[in-house]
Amino acid sequence: MHQGRRHCVHSGTGGRLASTTTDDIDALVARLKDRPRVVLHFHGGLVDDALGFVTAERLAPVYEAAGAEPVFFVWSSGLLEVLRGNLPQILSEGVFQTLLNRVVRFASGVVFQQPGSRALGGFTAPSTRAVARELALLRTGQEPYARLTPPAEVPALSEAERVRITADLAADAELAERNREIVGSVLRSAPATTAARDIDGGRAAVATLMSPDTVAELAAETADAENRRAVVTSALLVRKTVRVVSAVVARFRHRTDHGLYPTVVEEILREFYLANVGAAVWDAMKRQTADTFAAAAEPRAGRCFLDRFGRLLASGSRPRVTLVGHSAGAVFIGNLLTDLARRRADADDPLPEDFRVRDVVLLAPACTVGHLAGMVRRQAELFDRLRMFTMTDAAERADQLVPFLYPRSLLYFVSGVLERGPEGETAVSPLAGMQRWFTAEDDTGGADARDLRAFLRADATRTVWSPVDGGPGLTSGARSHAGFDDDPEVLASLARMLAD
User: Fold this and answer.
1) Contacts of 412 (CB under 8 A, 6+ apart)
2) Are 151 and 116 in contact (CB under 8 A)?
3) Are β-strands 69-74 and 8-10 bridged in parallel, bridged antiparallel, or unpaired?
4) What residues does 420 pair with on adjacent strands?
5) pLDDT tens digit string along 36-86?
6) What is the rounded CA–CA span in Å between residue 326 and residue 482?
7) Which of 142, 330, 396, 455 is least crowded, fewest Cβ atoms below 10 Å from its Cβ?
8) How far apart are CA 130 and CA 299, in angstroms?
9) What is the DSSP string of 440-479?
């Protein structure tokens, strides 16, 4: 193994061993024998393999100076490439901008209207020009509609309101033109025909990163029309747009909104662009962190490490173990703890009963509240302390994922776009690293959130809301999601925890 990688366990697709071999893991675990402290570090989902190794080389001296032998789990998600490549392009598309204008127009008219004045669909919607002027604030770094406050109760979209919005969108010439462009892009990719030229009007097709299934549905609907020359706004496009408006209103109703503009962006992405904004990559990445502990014919990195580490523990070695997970690394840690619990209950693969992890340290965790609640339920049997370093909501809102286009952090984006519900459906989910769920006074997150709030609030040292000077081991200066594993104050706090 390359000298710079001697501390690393490198996994690839499905959690299989990549550049690391079983002999490398044997040598790595052998170095842990009789070491008083061991750190297992899990980087985040925006880090590819190369950056993972760079992170290991940067942090290894920090952990060693604190008297700990580090082990870095290096894995690649591909999420960074998707977000850097696709998201800015999507948010700048002509069809996205038209949908944004229309959804903002109707959602703002409904959400910020006093409930009593909405009877019979009588809300007041701003003009498309007024919406365009408001959206232009993005170019100056301001968030559209951020100054407006919705009423305490926001009723669901009524049937009368749906009818009114549907009729308006069906007669929308610009939306019809966007529909023509989408369909034309499909037909341009097929062999040239008279019909294709008719629908496209003889002009160059406009590409879109809408989900392929959505584009195919829109094209199929147009192909079935009796008069293909007179393309009007697709009924399917209208229905989907109305569905987005309804979803935005529902999120304000249930207080899961992220502000009007970010919520509209999120709901358009979920309805029209989900295949190309990283949802599949996010799902695959989380599966990879679980699959690496699976029993399989081909060696799995996490399982190989724990097999050998378990034998080290059985020999009598008892290092103090600290788990550090940055962002999606928290998901990795949760799956590692699940495997430790399995081993404790497995008579053929026992974990010594007197072994416990000393500390679980989460840096801006991107796991769901439910996932962290599951970790906490295992605390009594598996680990002693948990500490979470993450940003205040004010800092989280200021950490813009795509400046001038999406004015919220990565955690907001994952929560509002990429996460899924219990049935695999896209669903807005509170993330453990977001302070807004922790301070919510309603039932956001359900029983898991209630239990987790109670656990975290029971000991003030379990949460470090950055930036803050909380004293030794409780200080952080990080003001960006990516900054936690590179912030001197966070690293000093980690060193202090290792010394305790």
Assistant:
1) 258, 262, 396, 397, 401, 434
2) no
3) parallel
4) 426
5) 999 999 999 888 888 999 999 999 999 999 999 999 999 987 788 888 889
6) 9
7) 142
8) 59
9) -SS-TTHHHHHHHHHHHHT-GGGEEEESEE-STTSEE---
Encoding tokens for residue 129?
Answer: 């020009």
CA–CA dist 417, 278 (Å, integer):
9
Evaluate whether 368 touches 432 at the Cβ level (below 8 Å).
yes
Residues in the chain: 500
User: What are the DSSP E strand ranges found in 100-174?
Assistant: none
| pLDDT digits 0-9 by tens, 371-406 | 999 999 989 899 999 999 999 999 999 999 999 899
Residue 416, both tokens: 């509002």
Closest to 39 measured CA to CA, from 64, 17, 20? 64
CB 77 within 8 A of CB 328: yes
What tokens appear for 151 in the block? 């009423």
Give residue 4's pLDDT.
55
In this predicted structure, what is the pLDDT of residue 6?
86
Flag whether pLDDT at 190 surpasses 60: no
* The one-letter amino acid at 499: A
**How far are the Cα atoms of 39, 58, 110, 151 from residue 113, in angstroms, in the given order?**
53, 53, 5, 8
